[in-house]
């Protein structure tokens, strides 16, 4: 029983990594396939998304400039 008390701090430290191993055991990578080169699908619409984000960025910059001017006026 005394030996268990000496090992208790070590056991407490090991509980976390050991429990993580058991919890993630079902999340294996058996069904995952990594694609390389021409096997990788094209990201459709990503160019449109980037263009849209650039437009939004410019609009936000204009709004920030307007707000800065309003703050200076006060």
Oligomer: single chain
**Biggest β-sheet, characterized?**
none
Share of helical residues: 55-70%
**Ends: how far apart?**
74 Å
Number of helices: 2
Radius of gyration based on Cα positions: 28 Å
Instruction: Describe the global form.
Output: elongated
What letter string, H or E per element, gives the SSE order? HH
Average residue pLDDT: 78
- Measured by DSSP, the beta-strand proportion falls in under 5%
Derived from helix and strand composition plus strand pairing, the structural class reads mainly alpha
Poorly predicted tracts of residues: none
Number of strands: 0
Short description:
By secondary structure, this protein is mostly helical. Helix content is 68%, strand content 0%.
